[in-house]
Design brief:
There is one protein chain. By secondary structure, the protein is of the alpha/beta class. Helix content is about 40%, strand content about 15%. The protein has 13 helices and 13 strands. A seven-stranded parallel sheet has the order 3-2-1-4-5-6-7, sandwiched between helices. Strands 10-9-8-11-12-13 form a six-stranded parallel sheet, with helices on both faces. Helix 1 crosses helix 13 and helix 7 crosses helix 11. The longest helix has 18 residues.
């Protein structure tokens, strides 16, 4: 019996990093349970962007399969069917991440991980796809607490097979901060540039925020926007406006954000609906960044009041400015303490060991482990 972890995207987001880390952990620590990581050649190239991950992929290459599952739904469904026929056997576990092919596979166990932070981030077709995935799956793993509650009500007859994701995680030995005195006054956004992330709204505020900070501080400031997504063209056009000329803004995609996160002090996570449990936010906190977050959903489960600053879900530039002005009223000793508290919280609550135990329990509850 094999477990196939099926990733359908070509680029790395929070979900891809989370499940890649799960695969690494099982390769290293669970010799009796082997997970086969399945993704496109492009995704594997992205995952190999740093030396540590590249070494893992080479070392455990026998537990990887390069197979392109990306594309529109019809292509994805055809690719999944072909993959199952070519590479799997009866009693194998198919673990679908984010996307589901909406069909049964004879004598295979299906596990479906819903990685959305809110149903409100999806259009009608997307919602139907997610619910359809639940219908066809034997076990369902749900990231968001609100989606978890809704699905348990809708699929009451499956409630014993619906689980809420225990936690997200990052490797705290990789995402380590520089000493706070060596950090710079950098403000970072990291994630997909999509509407629910409110990146455009934040960018509109940067000229106002920058000019205000320069009035109260002589420190060198920089704003980093790290990610990819459907708003890339719109962001490019926005930055052509005169008000952005000569501002210290860097916008790029990176597979290795630690080089910036370890040296930055502040992190924006401004999603609508929920920021819990954002992988990017966890990486930033592990790197000693102080969160500036929208106060929505279960965000405070992660970005605790003792080391975070909050803005409304539908924030304006004044809200962002007020939060940053509060930051600059603190002395370096207080900010250093908040930075350390953020990292300690991740070390305590968001470990790969905890997440590995959670997924192992789901795998063991499948019929395959009992045969």
């Amino acid at each position: 019996m094999k477990i196939f972890l099926l990733l359908s995207t070509n680029k790395i987001g929070g979900a891809e990093r989370r499940f890649f880390g799960l695969w690494q952990s099982f390769c290293i620590n669970n010799n009796d349970v082997r997970i086969i990581l399945v993704g496109s050649p492009e995704l594997f190239r992205a995952l190999s962007s740093n030396e540590v991950d590249s070494t893992s992929i080479k070392k455990y290459k026998q537990f990887t399969i390069e197979y392109d599952l990306s594309g529109n739904f019809e292509k994805y469904q055809r690719s999944i069917v072909a993959f199952v026929n070519e590479h799997t056997q009866k009693k194998d576990i198919l673990h679908f991440i984010g996307d589901h092919p909406l069909r049964t596979f004879k004598e295979r166990i299906q596990i479906y991980s819903i990685t959305q932070s809110s149903f409100r981030n999806l259009n009608l077709v997307g919602k139907i796809g997610q619910l359809g995935g639940v219908f066809f799956s034997d076990k369902i793993d749900v990231l968001d607490p609100n989606i978890y509650s809704a699905i348990k009500k809708l699929f009451f007859y499956k409630k014993k097979n619906i689980f809420r994701t225990s936690n997200s995680f990052c490797d705290v030995n990789i995402f380590k901060p520089l000493p706070f005195v060596q950090k710079d006054d950098w403000f970072v956004f990291l994630g997909r540039v999509e509407g629910m992330k409110q990146v455009i709204e934040l960018l509109h505020c940067i000229p106002i925020v920058y000019n205000a900070i320069k009035q109260i501080s002589n420190k060198e400031i920089h704003f980093y926007f790290l990610g990819y997504g459907s708003l890339e063209i719109e962001i490019g056009k926005l930055l052509e406006q005169d008000k952005f000329k000569n501002l210290p803004i860097t916008i790029k995609y990176t597979d290795n954000p630690i080089e910036i996160l370890k040296a930055s002090k502040f992190f924006f996570s401004l999603q609508r609906n929920n920021n819990y449990p954002s992988r990017s936010l966890i990486e930033a906190m592990s790197s000693g960044n102080i969160p500036i977050v929208t106060d929505v959903g279960q965000t405070r489960w992660l970005a605790k009041p003792e080391f975070s600053y909050y803005v409304p879900e539908r924030f304006n530039c004044e809200d962002i400015l007020n939060a940053i002005q509060k930051i600059y009223k603190e002395d370096e000793k207080a900010l250093s303490k908040m930075s350390k508290m953020a990292r300690k919280f991740v070390i305590k609550e968001h470990t790969i060991e905890k997440m590995g135990e959670y997924y192992l329990s789901i795998y063991k509850k499948s019929n395959s482990f009992n045969n």
